[in-house]
Amino acid sequence: MELRGGAGYEGPQRRGSLMADTLSAAISIGFHGLAFAMVLYLISVGLSVTMGMMGFVNLAHGVFAMLGGYVVTSLMSRHGVPFAAALAGAALVTALGSVVVERLLYRPLYGGDDLDQVLLTMGLVFMSVAAATYLWGPMEQPMHPPRWLSGEIAIGPRGFPAYRSFLILSGAALVTVLWLGLERTLFGLRIRAAVDNLRMAQSVGINTSRLFTLTFALGSGLAGLGGGLGADLLAINPNFALDNLVYFLIVVAVGGLGNIRGPFVAALLIGIADTGFKYLLPELGAFVIYALTLAILLWRPRGLFGRA
Amino acid sequence: MATEGLVRARLRAESGAVAVFARRHRLHPLEALPWAAAIAAFALFPSYLPLGAQILATILFALSADLVLGYAGIVTLGHAAFFGAGAYTAGILAAHGWGEPISGLIAAALAAALLGLISGLVVLRTTGLSLLMQTLVIATLLHEAANKASVLTGGDDGLQGMVVWPIFGLFRFDLFGRTAYVYCLVVLFLGWWAARQIVHSPFGRSLTGIRENVLRMHAIGAPVMRRRLVIYTFAAGLAGMAGALVAQTTQFVGLGFLGLERSGTILIMLIIGGVGRLYGAFIGVPLYMIAQDRFSAIEPVYWYFGIGLLMVLVVVFARGGIFALIDRLRR
User: Fold this and answer.
1) Fewest CB atoms less than 10 Å from the CB: which of A256, B127, B167, B232?
2) What are the pLDDT digits (tens) for A93-135?
3) Is the pLDDT score of A159 beyond 50?
4) pLDDT (tens digit, 9 = 90+) per residue, A33-51?
5) Residue B253: beta bridge partners?
6) B residues 104-123 near A, CB within 8 Å?
7) How confident is the model at residue A3 (pLDDT cuts 50, 70, 90)?
């Protein structure tokens, strides 16, 4: 990820330039970290809910995000579909595709062995690598934001890249909708019930089988949307699901399973820390993030907001 | 009369159970089969010995994964950490002027076992997803460390300039892979022997108990954590040896040695053969690696797809791998 508007050392001409530079760097890191966090959250939140609800170790979640990314980039560049329609298409295609996978492959393994789930979903990841190479070639798919989102927006003396600003705003809007949906609707109530106590939820007459499928489709659709929106942050290439798996799992594990607030805090933490450390200490790279994750998991094995 | 009959039947059943346990550790004639096959392969396929050496080393790695996964029931996604740690230890020694292979191998095993001990103290406190995540994060952490410490490891380009001395000062690593093959075979045999002794010991039986029912093992007072830690450390050492074997015989170590892909594929190879049987590795690894050698050269994309599909099919249709299929056919 590259940063724009960073703090370059300009010499001692101006008093207070160091402070201005520090402030400018902090704003930069905050801005780009926030954009990255939104993408991470959109992709990972569905994983947290489905893992918490069904106890299913789904390592193939990134495949849906990758699919979303491919749908958006190829619809826009090859077929000239408008940006918004391409995003909707990505969410729809991934949601429908995930229903097929869930019904055919995942369902028989609910409540089963961790190992079987790990193997099955790793197998899907490998297949996705091959299928994506076959269909779209080994190269990275370029993401061209529409004209109304290219360039920069000036806020005060600074310019912010328009597309990333859009990413932050639309991410925030989706998060709000998601929270309201989970807290205020009957569907959300049922999801929370099933996460809290699956058997009890079944006993009071919730059709958990259909709930699983719908939740899974929703989570995967969000991942597809996140993959499409974030295509210029997390590059869309055949190894997407394998390369970024650690990031998605970290967000889920640090946030805690089965809730949607934990992953948000985790995504903010990981997004901003990752951006910051890659910018300030490039020689350490992602090392700090992994060490931080390990420390958090040691301190709280069920994540920051996980229930005991 | 009736009670006497019952007592006698009970006694017979008990002595039957004792006999089964007593017989388990005895060598079965079939157990000689892999070794006979390995020696025959040495004579029959002289041009495939380099591949053969890789297969033997990978069997050792899979055996180590089987101890962790099949016997202790620890599902890990980071077993490559130990393989890579061993490979880099042996590799860095050989690249910096100490190319003696046996001591390099031992150093690699010790380094990997130490890593296993330290990381085991951390990861074994949890179970399920958290454990899976921690193993994955530790392996990724090492991968990133090796990537960034390029002065020592060569980073992304891999470690180059390894010079491995002849074994005992006598047997040079030749171009045809003869020395490498025999070296790997001997180390694998020793590793297998040790693993076999452990699995059939009372300690090994208690591990199976922990895998099958942790609560009950806690209830009868077994030191669960300590036993898991011991087997985790031992398996890490074996994996380190496997890594060192590959490093010394190919004279190369790359970041891929530590990657998620390697942790994943070793599980596949093991699953193809069968988990928790000690011999799954001997079937799964050669099948996988020979197929990879045949097909991936033609079209790597299809190979990847085929492997993924195979994993899915094994989980859906053939749980327990080839050994379970054989069991099912026998019945």
Assistant:
1) B127
2) 999 999 999 999 998 888 878 888 988 999 999 999 999 999 9
3) yes
4) 999 999 999 999 989 888 8
5) B159
6) 122
7) very low
Q: 10 Å Cβ neighbour count for A18?
A: 13
For chain A, give the percent of residues with pLDDT over 70.
Answer: 94
- Which pLDDT value is given to residue B192? 96
Q: Which of B137, B143, B151, B211 to mutate to test the interface with A (most CBs of A within 10 A)?
A: B137
Higher pLDDT, A308 or B290: B290
Amino acid occupying residue B149: A
Tell me if chain B has a CB within 8 Å of the CB of A116.
yes
Cβ–Cβ contact A292 with B under 8 A: no
pLDDT in tens, B165-178: 888 877 888 878 88
Please indicate whether, in this complex, the C-beta atoms of B311 and A109 are within 8 angstroms of each other.
no
Q: What are residue A141's DSSP bridge partners?
A: A236
pLDDT in tens, B219-229: 998 898 999 99
Q: What tokens does B202 get? A: 């009372």
Provide the 10 A C-beta neighbour count for residue A131.
19
| Cβ separation A294–B122 shorter than 8 A | yes
Q: Is the pLDDT of residue A9 over 50?
A: no
**Is A246 at the interface with chain B, CB within 8 A?**
yes
Report pTM: 0.87
User: Does A304 contact chain B (CB < 8 Å)?
Assistant: no
Residue A290 contacts B, CB cutoff 8 Å: yes
The number of beta carbons lying within 10 Å of the beta carbon of residue A246 is: 24
Query: What are the tokens at A259?
Result: 């809730």
Q: Please state the domain extents for chain B.
A: 30-259+274-283
Which residues have C-beta within 8 Å of that of residue A167, sequence separation ≥ 6? A35, A38, A39, A229, A230, A233
| Chain B residues with beta carbon closer than 8 angstroms to that of A283 | 148
A-B Cβ pairs (cutoff 8 Å, strict):
119
Which amino acid, one-letter code, is at B33? L
What does the mean pLDDT of chain B come to? 87
Q: How far is CA B316 from the centre of its chain?
A: 24
Give contacts of A253 with chain B, Cβ < 8 Å: 129-130, 133
The DSSP H or E segment spanning B254 is none
Distance in Å, alpha carbon of A15 to nearest chain B alpha carbon: 36
Q: Which residue has the tokens 């190369």?
A: B252
Instruction: Please report the DSSP string for B168-180 in residue order.
Output: TTTB---TTSHHH
How many Å apart are CA B178 and CA B128, to the nearest integer? 43
